[in-house]
Every structure is written in structure tokens, then in C-alpha cells.
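Table S2 (text version). Query chain:
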Amino acid sequence: MPGAGSRVRTEFAVIGAGICGLAAAWALRKRGHEVLVLDQGEAGHSLGGSHGSCRIFRLGYEKPAYVTLAARARDSWTELEESCGERLLAPTPQLTFGPQVAEVRAAMAAAGTPAELITPAAAAERFPGVKVSGQVMLETGSAVISADRSLTALGRLAGQPALRVGAEQGKVTRLAIRGTGVRVSTGAGEIDAERVIVCAGPWTARLVADVGISVPGWTSLEQVAYLARANSHQPSAVTPIMVHYGGEFPYGLPVPGSDHYKIGIHFGGPPVDPDQQDHAADPGLAGRIELAARQFLPAFDPRPVKVERCIYDNSPDTDFIIDRVGPVVLGCGTSGHGFKFGPLIGEWLAFLAANGRGTGGGRAADAAPPPWFALSRF
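Corresponding C-alpha cell output:
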């Protein structure tokens, strides 16, 4: 990190040490490039969108293209696990139900990934901790991602930890085009980079506005609850991931290494200024989550043992924004469903930043991002 008033040079600067930024840094490092990672806090800090213990990996989407991309992302996760020597994804069955379940099943079939329909009674017999209704799809390719350990592994593979010297000194304050590169200003000095990858979540739009790039979107502050089993003396049964697809969108997943269960409502939180986050529990959201817990999780106490807030960086259409404008590469708009794609997004960002040079690493390394993620669609 530069000292106050100093200036350093680097080949690539990555702004944001969440899942996408660290994955991009690793993708560049394994190809022999020089990378500097910048963040206003430690990797996984509570103000960003990548913090917390776990996330869902699933193939089930209502769009066949996303099903195909999720399958490719699974290969990228396998490469990450092999590189770091740790198991980061724990295979876990998933029950998908709700008004769009038929649409999700059709999309999976169209992508060549069929899934089985089972009755609610069969689901209750196999998974007594969960109660669902209507059409139920059993997905066997799902997993629980150890999110915090994934960030640690990526930071280690990227060759350096995310930089933290306090909000006043370490926070990126301005970007400016200098010749064919970018000057990154922080409270601790300036950095000149050939390319900058901006994965700063809801702060991305403000940063790139300095260099004339307009990124649409909005920020919401979501809430999740961690539940304990209602009867701690009862032997723990296998508890699946659950996704109520469509309408009110509750989801849940078992927490790795514990008997707790994480539950939330996708796109349930209010709009917020990312610089004005209040992480106190929202009573309205708490009530909606408790109602979902009482309805779908009979084996768990609906009163949470812990509540957590998490920021969503939303694009207008909820598809990702992955593009390059001059020397600036954008990785944002993940809209609450980007973590499962993190290592694959990192490959795409590295591809764009390096002009496709040195792309000999993983299975997705020689591919550009899908054109429908381009900023020009807005």
C-alpha cells in the first residue's frame, strides 16, 4: 500500500475484496499478472455483499441460460477447491416449490439438467424438518457454499490479503483516466494501473461516474435469520436447502458446521444508501421471516438466535453487469444471486482486463462473458 502522498504502479488494480473481486485477482495472478487488491475493509466486511457464513449453490433458474452458466460455475468452484486444497461446497439436496417451479423445471430440462418432481408427502418423509406444498422439485446438484472460507481461500490464492488501513486512508475516493490507464486515488496515496477492475458492489456506480461511465441500479438492505432446532435433544435429520420460487421468495439453507438454519426473503429488504446502512434488525422483515419459518420449517424455533443484514447491489433487470469500457472493467449488479457464480465471474473479468492474454487456466478461462451482461443493454 502506498504511504500518504506517495504513488505506486501496478499492472492491474482490483477495487473490492468480495467474491467477484478476489476471484478476478486470483484469475489474473494464476496467469502471472501483477495485481493489487483494494477495499475499504477486510474481505467479507459487514458493509459489503459477500459477508456471512454461507450461500446457496443451485442450478435451478427460470432461464435455461442461467442453468447452463451455473453448471459452468460448478466447474470453476471445483478448480478453486483443488487449488486451495479445501472443500468449499457441501453437496446438499434442494427442494424448490412455489408458483414458478414448473418454469424452473422446464428451464433445467431445456439446459439438459433434468430434475425430479416429488409429492409434498414424499418430501416430508425424506426431510421431516421441512414442510412444503404444491409441486415440489428435488434438485440433487445443489450445495451449501462456505462463503467465509471461500473468501479466505481466494485471498490466499490471489497472493495478498485485501488491504485495510481504515476508511479515511484505504477507501478509494476517485478514479481518473491517465493516458491508456487509470489513476486510483485513496487517502494513503495514488496508484497508477494499466487496468482497473471495479467490483465495489453498490459503490461501483459512484466510482466509475468519475470517468464518465453510467451504471444504473439500486441498493437494498436485506435481512436473514439463523434458527436453532426446536428440540435440541432430537437427533438431527438431513435438512435440505429450500427455495420458494416466485412471489414472496423465502429461501433457506443449513449452516455448515452447526445445527443452525439460515432463512431469508430474496428481495425483501428496503432501498438504502450504501453509506447509510443500519444493521439493526428490521421488525417488519423479522415478522415476514418468522412467518415463513413457521410455515416451512417445523423442526426449528422460528425465533432467531441471530439476525444479520446484507446489502444487495441490484441491476435494473437483475442480470449481472460484466463489461469493459476503455481501461475500466465492471463487475457489478449481482442482484443477490452472484455468489454462486463468483469464480466464473472472476474468469470473465480477468479475460476482459487482460484482453484475453494468458488465458490458459480453467475450463471457462478462454471465454468472454455472455454478451447479455454488457452495460450497453441499458
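Notes on Table S2: Residues 93-141+218-314 form a domain with the D-Amino Acid Oxidase; Chain A, domain 2 fold (CATH 3.30.9.10). The chain has two domains: 1-89+145-216+317-378, 93-141+218-314.
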